[in-house]
């Protein structure tokens, strides 16, 4: 078995409420679904949040995640749009995993992840939205939490153990990972991670309502079912997603019938934005080769030409990257990826003034765009403009304390701020956050212990470090 086949379909969301330690203070319509009542043995929100954050860290440590602000935010926008049709709170986050397997998974606490294989196999964004909506529907109906009564007190953090075994399986021989998950995990796999046929059908039905209300074509959920059914009938194995979400002929027929009963959404004949997203993903996940991209680019395929520019950029061939980017600039004047890739080309050549010019004006017109702000911050750090870079990043860290890329930028900026009295302390504190949310909890605690020693004599900073250190230590020891 590969990667995350046992973790599919386990999502719940809570409001993000994380203690802000090192930063200054800042200050829809919904779809009707059946009321499931209070239930028995429901996980309380604090436990859900703890589990979600724990697995978030575990996944980042064990799985090959893609750290790309633009790519993450594209899918988070889809996810959040569907989530807005529910009564669930703000999610912990969304992770893109570099894996060609078709899979998506979610865990209690509001963590959603999808493999790049799911993205590259989809024909349109609506199909991806259908998978997300299905997962969210499992959550709104508390399918996971409601099953806990049957599980009778076994540690929920065994879920993290399963993820570790699955991660081993994805990086080595599959039998090794399977062996890790045998024995005491068998009951967990059987009772905790399996959904009944009724729950699957309910998630299909309610998920379709969510995606339709969010503006996506409900026919795409039925289309994806049929595409997967045809694909799996020709091979000897099932994709991971269907191992935990068994696909039956009955489910496919019901999905098509329900989609036909909803008002028709006119499908797009050609969606350039999705094609750009898809081919960009193939490059960042190493699923595309130069010959494949060149064949499409020579046909004047705009998405392939832009992806080829990104491909050459990652190869360090800035001349070819620039040549391919120049081919699409006039056709993609308003697309954010153009200035992002252009800035990286200049940064790779150490042309800092040109990089600044390429990103600064568009970032100022779209200050809410995380990818543009982080790229501009990277330029400013390279130019030594530390305070301005920190100001850009801190706005996003305030919104999401789990933003690894944001903490890494703050660490880089603090490392250059030689005039700051507590420079070493700040570097250590930012480094601790990067380590912690990347899953290296012990290293994060060591970094804060070092910062604690250096901060002696500064009562305010010492108090902040002490509080964050205690929180990390408590979370590391905590069992459920």
From TrEMBL:
Binding-site list for Zn(2+): 134, 138, 200
Domain Peptidase M48: 68-256
Enzyme class, UniProt record, top EC level: hydrolase
Gene Ontology molecular-function annotations: metalloendopeptidase activity; zinc ion binding
Cellular localisation: Periplasm
Pfam families: Peptidase_M48, TPR_19
EC number(s) per entry: 3.4.-.-
Record bears the keyword Hydrolase: yes
Residues annotated as the enzyme's active site: 135, 204
Entry's Gene Ontology BP terms: proteolysis involved in protein catabolic process
Cofactor note as given: Binds 1 zinc ion per subunit.
InterPro entries: Mito/Outer_Membr_Metalloprot, Peptidase_M48, Protease_BepA, TPR-like_helical_dom_sf
Cofactor(s) annotated in UniProt: Zn(2+)
This protein's GO CC annotations: membrane; periplasmic space
UniProt xrefs under SUPFAM superfamilies: TPR-like
UniProtKB keywords: Hydrolase, Metal-binding, Metalloprotease, Periplasm, Protease, Signal, Zinc
Family: Belongs to the peptidase M48 family. BepA subfamily.
PANTHER family: METALLOENDOPEPTIDASE OMA1, METALLOENDOPEPTIDASE OMA1, MITOCHONDRIAL
Described function: Functions as both a chaperone and a metalloprotease. Maintains the integrity of the outer membrane by promoting either the assembly or the elimination of outer membrane proteins, depending on their folding state.
Name of the protein in its database record: Putative beta-barrel assembly-enhancing protease
Species this protein is from: Acinetobacter haemolyticus CIP 64.3 = MTCC 9819
């Amino acid at each position: 078995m590969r990667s995350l086949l046992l973790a599919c379909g386990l999502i719940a969301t809570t409001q993000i409420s994380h203690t802000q330690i090192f930063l200054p203070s800042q200050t829809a319509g919904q779809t009707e679904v059946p009321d499931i009542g209070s239930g028995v043995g429901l996980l309380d929100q604090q436990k859900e949040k703890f589990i979600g954050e724990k697995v978030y860290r575990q996944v980042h440590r064990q799985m090959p995640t893609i750290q790309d602000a633009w790519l993450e935010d594209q899918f988070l926008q889809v996810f959040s749009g569907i989530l807005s049709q529910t009564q669930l709170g703000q999610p912990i986050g969304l992770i893109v995993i570099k894996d060609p397997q078709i899979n998506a998974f979610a865990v209690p606490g509001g963590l959603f992840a999808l493999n790049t294989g799911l993205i590259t196999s989809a024909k349109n964004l609506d199909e991806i939205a259908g998978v997300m909506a299905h997962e969210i529907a499992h959550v709104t109906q508390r399918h996971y939490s409601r099953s806990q009564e049957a599980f009778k007190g076994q540690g929920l953090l065994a879920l993290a153990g399963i993820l570790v075994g699955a991660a081993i399986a994805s990086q080595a021989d599959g039998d090794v990972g399977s062996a890790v998950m045998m024995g005491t995990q068998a009951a967990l796999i059987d009772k905790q991670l399996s959904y009944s046929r009724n729950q699957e059908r309910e998630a299909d039905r309610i998920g379709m309502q969510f995606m339709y209300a969010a503006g996506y074509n409900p026919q795409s959920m039925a289309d994806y079912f049929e595409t997967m059914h045809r694909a799996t009938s020709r091979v000897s194995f099932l994709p991971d997603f269907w191992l935990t979400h068994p696909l039956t002929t009955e489910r496919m027929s019901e999905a098509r019938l329900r989609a036909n009963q909803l008002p028709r959404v006119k499908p797009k004949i050609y969606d350039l934005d999705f094609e750009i997203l898809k081919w960009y993903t193939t490059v960042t996940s190493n699923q595309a080769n130069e010959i494949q991209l060149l064949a499409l680019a020579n046909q004047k395929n705009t998405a392939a030409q832009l992806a080829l520019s990104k491909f050459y950029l990652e190869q360090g061939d800035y001349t070819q990257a620039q040549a391919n980017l120049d081919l699409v600039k006039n056709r993609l004047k308003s697309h954010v990826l153009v200035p992002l890739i252009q800035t990286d080309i200049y940064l790779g050549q150490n042309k800092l003034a040109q990089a600044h010019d390429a990103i600064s004006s568009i970032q100022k017109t779209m200050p809410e765009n995380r990818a543009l702000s982080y790229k501009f911050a990277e330029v400013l750090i390279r130019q030594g403009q530390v305070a301005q870079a920190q100001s850009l990043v801190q706005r996003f860290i305030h919104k999401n304390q789990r933003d690894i890329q944001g903490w890494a930028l703050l660490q880089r900026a603090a490392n250059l701020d030689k005039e700051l009295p507590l420079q070493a302390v700040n570097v250590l504190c930012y480094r601790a956050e990067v380590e912690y949310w990347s899953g290296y909890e012990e290293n994060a605690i060591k970094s804060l212990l070092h910062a604690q020693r250096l901060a002696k004599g500064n009562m305010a900073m010492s108090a902040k470090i002490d509080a964050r250190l205690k929180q990390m230590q408590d979370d590391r020891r905590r069992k459920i």
